[in-house]
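Inverse folding, one chain.
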């Protein structure tokens, strides 16, 4: 099953494991300020307390938290500087949670 999130950040989830590709856009320039590719692996589906994550915004944030904070990286994960900042990861989650999602993503 393919799922697509389309907002300031675009993410492609294809079950687990999956790949995510993101472009972060500055609102005042409407140009990407960051680009990375991520592999959504098993570790990205659980938070640090072991609770399974079910929402795309949670999983995407956990992927970047795992990469930057915990050093948990999948083979196809790419680095980015924007989400190294925990406040930016929180903003990402809020953008995805409050944005519009296509398809059956919210189910």
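Residues assigned per position:
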């Amino acid at each position: 099953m393919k799922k697509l999130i389309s907002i300031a950040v675009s993410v492609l989830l294809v079950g687990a494991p999956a790949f995510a590709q993101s472009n972060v856009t500055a609102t005042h320039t409407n140009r990407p300020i960051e680009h990375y590719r991520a592999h959504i692996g098993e570790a990205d589906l659980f938070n640090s307390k072991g609770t399974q994550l079910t929402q795309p915004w949670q999983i995407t944030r956990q992927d970047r938290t795992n990469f930057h904070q915990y050093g948990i990286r999948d083979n196809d994960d790419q680095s980015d500087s924007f989400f190294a900042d925990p406040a930016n990861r929180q903003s990402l989650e809020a953008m995805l949670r409050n944005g519009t999602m296509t398809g059956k993503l919210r189910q």
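The chain is about 25% helix and 25% strand. Residues 1-17 have pLDDT under 50 and may be disordered.
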